[in-house]
Write a structure and sequence with these properties.
The chain crosses the membrane at residues 23-42, 54-74, 94-127. Keywords: Membrane, Transmembrane, Transmembrane helix. This protein has one domain (2-142). The protein is mostly helical and 143 residues long. It has helices spanning 2-15, 23-46, 54-75, 78-86, 91-121, 124-142.
């Protein structure tokens, strides 16, 4: 319950200045924080006896996240934009795009492995607190 309150409060504080102008973005941040909180609570409740390893938990939620993201991409027609970017004639631009895409995937795997190590060595609460500290620091750097 502490994580849920911590994340919801963090979302309210982070988005307070932009509540009147960017409701969709604020809603995405709020839903991200809410689902992270729910994930942490569910992972703690289901895994009280340590029957499920951190890898299985992250694999399940990554699969759920993939399906939700795929639904959003198909709903917003972003897949057409991605396909049009791969058909550009400029070879340098195309290689930079593909390189960025591959780098993004590698960094995503790195973040997942780092999360697994934190989950294994500490607890899901530690992962949530560090993630929220990172979000706060990025927010202040953007200002």
């Amino acid at each position: 319950m502490f994580t849920l309150v911590f994340n919801v409060t963090g979302a309210l504080v982070a988005g307070y200045e932009h509540l009147t102008t960017e409701w969709f973005s604020y809603g995405l941040v709020f839903m991200n924080n809410l689902t992270t909180s729910i994930y942490t609570v569910v992972a703690n409740r289901v895994n009280k006896n340590k029957r499920i390893g951190a890898f299985e938990i992250n694999y399940f939620f990554a699969l759920c996240g993939f399906l939700v993201t795929l639904g959003l991409v198909l709903n917003s027609d972003a897949i057409d934009e991605l396909i049009s970017l791969t058909k550009i004639e400029d070879q340098v631009y195309q290689m930079q795009f593909i390189g960025s895409l591959v780098l993004s995937g590698v960094l995503g795997i790195f973040i997942t492995c780092s999360s697994l190590m934190v989950l294994t060595m500490a607890s899901p609460v530690a992962l949530t607190i560090t993630g929220k500290k990172n979000n706060r620091d990025n927010y202040y750097q953007a200002i």
